[in-house]
Design goal:
Elements (H helix, E strand, L loop, with lengths): L1 E3 L2 E9 L2 H4 L3 E5 L4 E7 L12 E7 L1 H8 L9 E11 L3 E13 L8 E10 L2 E10 L7 E5 L7 H11 L4 E5 L14 H4 L5 H13 L3 H16 L9 E6 L1 H12 L4 E7 L22 E7 L7 H14 L3 E6 L16 H19 L1
Helix pairs in contact: 6-7
Length: about 350
Amino acid sequence: MMPVNGVFFSYRVESDFPEFNSRASASLGLAQRTVRLWTGLPSSTHRSSRRHSRLLSIITSADLTGLYGQFRPPANGFRAKYSSKIPLPGIGTRAALWHTVRCNCPVPMDAKAALTTVDIVTPDGVCDASLAVPEGTGKFPAVLFLMDAFGVRPVINEWITRIAARGYVVLAPNLLYRSARSPLFTDLASQMTAENRPKLFGSLMPMMKLLTPENVLKDAEAYLDFIQGRPDVAPGPVAMSGYCMGTRFALRAASAFPERVAAVAGFHGGNLGTDEPDSVHLVVGSLKAEVYLAYADHDESANADQQKRLNEALNEAGVAHISEVYLDAPHGYTMADTPAYREEAAERHFVKLIELLDRKLK
């Protein structure tokens, strides 16, 4: 699923070379208004630094306008055909490829979401948060989007806006508000270099240590009261989607307030089944939410033993859950402003999340 001007649609890419089709994908750049067509080649015929993929072509918004009159696809989807020439080992030094993109729009073409910043009063102070609300009238189900350690920032706002455009009120609180308001970092990319990472995490650890189990429960109640008290939020339980440390927050909060949370999703979560006496796997017995967990591949903070502990605790409690590992997706794979970002895994996360939300909240 990919966005265009707040619209989400499914896509399929084809070429005149059948062996490409099972590996093909497309992405639409929000800022550049471009379509990028990618195809994966077997490693024996093509090698690249990431995913054995090659960028086949970039079609600008001007090209798109010429193809079907406007940038956004028509309500019944569109089909466009393009050609490009690139060198492909084993096929020809400059092989002409035709690409067909078919897009089907499962939501109204005018689906949009408004993004604002709000303050939430908690027992320990004021938490700043991003809030995304679907355009239109009525009441919508609510989602708490629980950030990773790097704070509420543009990439978080992009995700919550995408979710909101699907018909949800989405709140992304700054879980580390006790230390600083957002943004926690002004130039995250430069601070995540190998040289600067130790300093970055050295500054993060004191902030994260303030997020004790007791503080999580105080904060969670404040966030739930805020979102469920809004006039545009439908009555009933909410969903929580956590990322990295946010997964731990989501599981603990949903266990403490089982009647108020119908679904929990966790992506590249870590330290969910440790030997510590306050490990979150020890409290999930009270969960009533359905749980979906998508671990990162080769994640030292979520090794097989930890996954097993949490799965066994969920099974023992009779909690409906799915636990998966996204292959070739490192810790942090959903966040486009980090080196760990993997587009395929990030989009898979979005599809799985929306499926869960639609199933449990609508």
